[in-house]
Amino acid sequence: MGNQERISLSVQHITKTYPGVAALNDVTIDFKKGEVHALMGENGAGKSTLMKVISGGISPDSGKFVINGKEFTKIIPSQSQAHGVQIVHQELNLVSALSVTENIFLGSFIGNKVTVDFPKMREKTCEYFQEYGITGINPDTAAEELTVAQMQLVEIIKAISRNVEILILDEPTSPLTAYETEILFGIIENLKKRNVTIIYISHRMSEIYRIADRITILRDGQKVETRNAADISRDELIKLMVGRELKETYPQRKAVSGEVVLEVKGLRGNGLKNISLKLYKGEILGLAGLVGAGRTELVRLIYGADKVEGGEIFLEGKKVRIKSPTNAVDLGIGLLPEDRKLEGVILELSIKQNVILPSLKGISRMLYINRKKEKEIICSQINDLKIKTPSFEQLVRNLSGGNQQKVVVSKWLASSAKILIFDEPTRGIDVGAKQEIYTLMNKLTEQGISIIMVSSEMEELMGMSDRIIVLREGAVAGELSAGETITQEQIMEIASMK
What we know:
The chain is 34% helix and 26% strand. By secondary structure, the chain is of the alpha/beta class.
């Protein structure tokens, strides 16, 4: 078979610009059948824009792309899908009120022109789950009742159920546990054997070296290089991505004081039972556990997003009742949620409006906002977090995923919060931005701010936490101190022990 016949997708001289931003600049890449081709680059490098061009979400300004021998200068989503292209976005797109089965077959229902064969679709759903090793998901369950990890797996099955030939995965393992990630890798191996092309976007280096055949690096909208994964070192890859030397290291933590700022006693609700813990001033307290263990459920109770059914919460020794997020914010508690688009930002508002929302009381008097102070806060946050934008008036919807995440972080940094809850703080964040987030978290704790951090990345938990509380089935299963030698195996043993 000739080399040309092995190419399933070729993008040639693709350019796409937005006001003030060159998202893609003359990008040319070939993707081969049956390979895992990783796209690497910092947030704003152009990865997601290129995938939107291929899948029909946006049209390029110039250039062309060839899908299985057919040439396009632009395409709409239905055409892209008809030619075997399926994309699983980082931000999930299931219809919450529909069942798992209905979501998988949405737009391609089995039946005739008059009726839909629901039993047949359910049967096929079960077959897909069995074939790809997915357990614990009921085909009849509404999507809104699933965890984020379960939604991700359903999205992947939905994509591969449609005669996929080119599968684009954008940060697919962000919400997955180690076990679920192994399921995904098994799915990928299965698809490779079927000669499916996998375009894989991830910031997790270990994954890239585990499954990628080739890697293309993008930087500032331009292609830097395409290399065989086996021929490029981790340090060289990072340097090509960010344009400078960068080591993935964690900042040195200082000793934490003995002053308790938050205490939870016997907390119940949201599936949790008798949770008790303490958070100290200037501490980063990590929450570990498998998906469904209760990590996000716990922080939502503390933040007032879900109803507390029993137990007590104390702030600086004083018992408080947190009935809503408004109460939490007034008490100096801020939340960086796992799902940034749904709960972290208001997509149709500008960067300025999003960042300033929690701080309005502090810069307002009567009906007037101190515009000078407002501008100072906004400009400071954009510069400190290196948010890539032509203006602070830019709508958050138009930012890359990583820059949206930075906006969520910056709105709490701009407020006077004493306790910050970070739920998957670096989900979908590139290596350069991760360093900035870690440094900022460290700086905040040095200023006396306390942090509760939920993370599925074991290295991150071990590298940033002063203590780690491991949850299992809605209860505290164990506690580990940074002063001890903590291993990933130790955390997983506690998290999965019966």
